[in-house]
Amino acid sequence: MTTIQAPSPHATLINVFTVEPQRAPELVELLRQATEDVMRYVPGFVSANIHLSTDGTRVTNYAQWRRVEDFHAMLADPRAREHMGRCADIATSFEPHVYTVESVHQAG
After folding, report:
1. Which residues, if any, are the signal sequence (predicted)?
2. Is-cis flag, bond preceding 7, omega within 30?
3. Taking a C-beta distance cutoff of 8 angstroms, is the pair 90, 19 a contact?
4. Phi, psi for 66 (deg, rounded to 5)
5. How far apart are CA 51 and CA 32, in angstroms?
6. Quick check: helix, strand or coil at residue 32?
7. Each residue of 67-81: pLDDT tens digit?
């Protein structure tokens, strides 16, 4: 389960994929499958959440890793690279960045 807190010990990946709306369901399913079959077993993986924009042109993967080093190690995993390549083939572009949590707010 994803928990967002500040300060957070985790590294947060936010990867925004731009996609043709008709291919968005395919990308969502591929990310779901990659997370279930591969990513959740990679050392340091904490959680992932896959979001689809209401206009169908963006798919966002919000994932937490124990440390930024764990995320970078995953990038070298052949199983993960295979899935990432398939995602890149579906998307028209993608923009991954790793973040730290700086502030969290809740309804008062």
Report:
1. none
2. yes
3. yes
4. -55, -45
5. 11
6. helix
7. 999 999 999 999 999
Q: Residues with Cβ < 8 Å from 61, sequence gap 6 or more?
A: 13, 14, 15, 17, 31, 48, 49, 50, 51
Domain layout of the chain by residue ranges: 11-99
- Structure confidence at residue 3 (pLDDT): 83
Q: What's the whole-number average pLDDT of the chain?
A: 95
Distance CA 82, CA 62 (A): 19
Q: What is the CA radius of gyration of the chain?
A: 14
3-state SS, residue 7: coil
Whether the pLDDT of residue 107 is over 90: the answer is: yes
Report which DSSP code applies to 23.
G
User: Domain 11-99 is in which class?
Assistant: alpha beta
